[in-house]
Design a protein that fits this description.
mainly beta, about 30% strand, disordered C terminus
């Protein structure tokens, strides 16, 4: 494979061919349990080469915003999650889950700048314990279609475990299978379980950090 072919297949930033394909679908962004309560701590998400921040607002909606505040690029991971929006700790700009800037304390009274600024925000949909998002053109956004492994919103095919040392053995012990046909070298992607496993034959495994991951 040439470097050019590798870039064609692997680059997923906005404007890249694979990036455009990926952004034409609803994608899993994080687990609902990562933002368990309204007005809780914002959490980092990196998806398709973009640094984002996720939070659950006062009404229980999950917001997914660009991580840097549109004012001075301060990280919204440090923002206060309050009154159905994130408030940047630098100059107090308040941004809701749809990217609207609600307040700008740094502006003089009567300023209409709020009406002119729109922060990066992606729509979300919770299903089967997963927060899904659509990152493509809003005019072309398809309706959310449940995945085949989660026909009902109450389905919970995900489980979290902590890998200490031989994470392959721990993944097998959770699945109930003595051997695995396709456990990836890196903790990312899908794990296929052999015949006879009490769980499904495909186990989604998502990298969290060096010793922590999520799987079904």
């Amino acid at each position: 494979m040439t470097p050019e072919e590798n870039d064609l297949l692997c680059r997923v930033e906005r404007g890249a061919p694979m990036g455009r394909i990926a952004r034409s679908h609803w994608l899993p962004a994080l687990l609902s349990e990562e933002v368990p309560e309204p007005d809780g701590t914002p959490v980092p998400v990196r998806l398709l080469g973009e640094d984002l921040v996720a939070f659950r607002d006062s009404e229980g909606r999950v917001g997914l915003l660009g991580r840097q505040c549109p004012h001075r690029r301060a990280s919204l991971l440090l923002a206060r999650n309050e009154d159905s929006a994130l408030r940047c700790l630098y100059h107090g700009w308040k941004i809701d889950a749809t990217g609207n800037v609600l307040e700008m304390p740094s502006e003089i009274g009567g300023s209409t700048l709020c009406e002119k600024v729109k922060h990066t925000a992606y729509p979300t949909h919770e299903w089967a314990g997963v927060v899904w998002t659509y990152m493509g053109d809003a005019a072309s956004m398809p309706s959310f279609q449940p995945p085949s492994w989660a026909p009902a919103s109450s389905t919970r095919p995900w489980r979290r475990f902590f890998a200490s040392g031989d994470w392959r053995s721990e993944a097998r012990s959770i699945s109930g299978s003595k051997t695995s046909t396709a456990i990836p070298r890196r903790m990312y992607g899908w794990v296929s379980i052999t015949e006879g496993s009490p769980t499904s034959k495909s186990m989604p495994l998502r990298y969290r950090n060096r010793r922590r991951c999520s799987c079904s």
